[in-house]
Amino acid sequence: MASNYIINVAIAGASGNSGGIMTDALLKTGRHTITAITRAGGQSKLPDGVIVKPVDYSKLETIVEALKGQDALIIALNGYAPPEIDMMLIKAAGDAGVPWIFPNEWAPDTANEDLAQDLVVFQSKGPIRKAITDLGKSSYIAVNTGFWYEWSLAIPSAFGIDFANRTVTLFDEGKTKISTSTWPQVGRTVASLCSMPIKAEGNGGACLENLKNQIVYVDSFTVSQIDMLESVFRVTGITEQDWTITKESAKERYENGLKEMHQGDRIGFVKMLYTRIFFDDGAGNFESKGTLNSLLGLPKEDIDEVTRAAIERSKTVTW
């Protein structure tokens, strides 16, 4: 008799930033057997207990073989990975009989058509979801988390806060709120989803079937640049008078970032990507759509604790 739970989980990108957090969170549940789908010849270090299956992304049959017997495939590849790899994984998952796919989302609201139109890295997300349903062999749950807070806050050109130089660029007035998640929250989300029953048990309740082929949302908090900056002041004890604060039109910053990106400037890409979610059209704030936080038992996090982690991380990141 087939289990009503996901047991075998394959992760593509298990050694990456978010994929590593997901892998650790799943291992901690003690409920899952984790298989890392890795590129042949890769040297990534993975936690004890993770099964490693190298594949050749140019040969579909190697991916199919690696995915046989898996109950779920989580795709957590680097954002620069070409969409063709996602499509290969989806096709292979279908051919291997994998019933559940968590596609490579983990981002702001990819269902927002205006946002997806303006951010090229999101334009493949809708077609990838459609490809899963069109194939008809697997079901998906697309998890939107917003940008990762401690990763993004550590990059001056992302949220506009430069710890080293004590400078801040507020987009417009800095009051537009965006939904954002921490890495641990993303890990908890994946572990909770993969631990839910597939079909409702007993008197009903939460189950994966109720989320089938849907985009779902989780976050840690919904905050503005001003909220972030006030957290920085609390954590560091450094007052506003010790910072240089300027303002810039969000739309102009986005347009300038777009031009710089086309000139090969990666900081321009970051400026374009992040500033777009701070437009006053609400695209960066998905709390009004409802989140799964309560359903998944996710905690309300302390922004100051995560701001402290971002400050530490900023000391080792160069942009």
UniProtKB/TrEMBL annotation:
NmrA-like domain span: 9-142
First and last residue of the signal peptide: none
InterPro entries: NAD(P)-bd_dom_sf, NmrA-like, NmrA/Isoflavone_reductase-like, PCBER-like
Gene3D superfamilies (UniProt xref): NAD(P)-binding Rossmann-like Domain (3.40.50.720), UDP-galactose 4-epimerase, domain 1 (3.90.25.10)
Gene Ontology MF: a single term: oxidoreductase activity
CDD domains with a match to the protein in the record: PCBER_SDR_a
Keywords: NADP, Oxidoreductase
Natural source organism: Penicillium vulpinum
Pfam family for this entry, one: NmrA
SUPFAM superfamilies, alphabetized: NAD(P)-binding Rossmann-fold domains (SSF51735)
Protein name in the entry: NmrA-like domain-containing protein
